[in-house]
Amino acid sequence: MPAITVDNVLVLPRLPRLEESTAFRPVRRLTTAPSGFEGEGFPVRRAFAGVPLTELDPFIHLDQMGEVDYAPGEPKGTPWHPHRGFETVTYIIDGVFDHQDTHGGGGTITDGDTQWMTAGSGLLHIEAPPEHLVMSGGLFHGTQLWVNLPRVAKMNPPRYQDIRGKESALLTTPDGGALIRVIAGEIAGHRGPGSTHTPITITHVTVQPGAQVDLPWRPEFNALAYVLGGRGTVGTDRRPVHTGQLAVHGPGDALRFTADARQDAHTPALDLYIMGGQPIREPVAHYGPFVMNTRDELLQAFEDFQAGKLGVIPAERLPHTGGQGPRP
What we know:
CATH topology of the largest domain: Jelly Rolls
Number of domains: 2
Strand content: 35-45%
CATH superfamily of the largest domain: Jelly Rolls
Domain Pirin C-terminal: 203-310
Pfam families: Pirin, Pirin_C
Strand order of the largest sheet: 1-22-19-24-17-14-13
Structural class: mainly beta
Domain Pirin N-terminal: 43-147
Number of helices: 3
Shape: globular
Low-confidence stretches: 318-328
Largest sheet: 7 strands, antiparallel
Distance between the termini: 29 Å
CATH architecture of the largest domain: Sandwich
Binding site for Fe cation: 81, 83, 125, 127
Number of strands: 26
Radius of gyration: 19 Å
Organism: Micromonospora krabiensis
């Protein structure tokens, strides 16, 4: 699980040591993601299954894509599909993905890169492995997070952010036992590159065997921690977690995670995808690729899609040169 890393974490800025009086967040809910298939048949874990939207707000949906080691000819993607009313945040840990939309966004993302697409008023989108990966096969692993947009921003023009893994803010714990990659938002004064409509924080944390992370967290944000790989505990009461589980936290000022001293050979550390944001607290009408506030808005989205108002599929996929798409 390479994502973006450094040879020596001890050269990185460090989290502050938290005071003994810090209010650590309790674990309110612990769920295990069911497995399924998406697009043309690539395996996913539905990380938010069974969790009420009120506890997820401002997030809607999270898929862990893979981890899967494809044989030659097996890699799969998605066909063209519409979106309206929210943002998709696609994070690639291992492998390569090409993406393109009908608003001009597109590019190639690979180890540690993030493709942040604000669908807004609507567009069509496609994601697929590049031809060379289809031919050769190989490892593929990533996540796609859906971030809701507030009512006032749902019909904004689409926007695209191409975030390279090396742009993430990197820091470590006081003892150097973990690598913290800040993709969006801010942790202990270190800000990630993602630009967001709703105040949120997204970070990928790798905790070495036996190490502990005390992560300061904004008290007005919710806190969701999904286990990408490995085994460990969450909270001060050390609730066990493993790959494919989601910990939904209650109120407080900080999160605590500890990696088991012994890990599987395939997953040598505890890897966590941690999300939090300021709840929007608006009605949610969600069906398929549309996230709106009312049923009438959903019906309008389907009508606009069928009328071709969300974009026209180009005759050919755009060539990719260097992996950089247009920036907002």
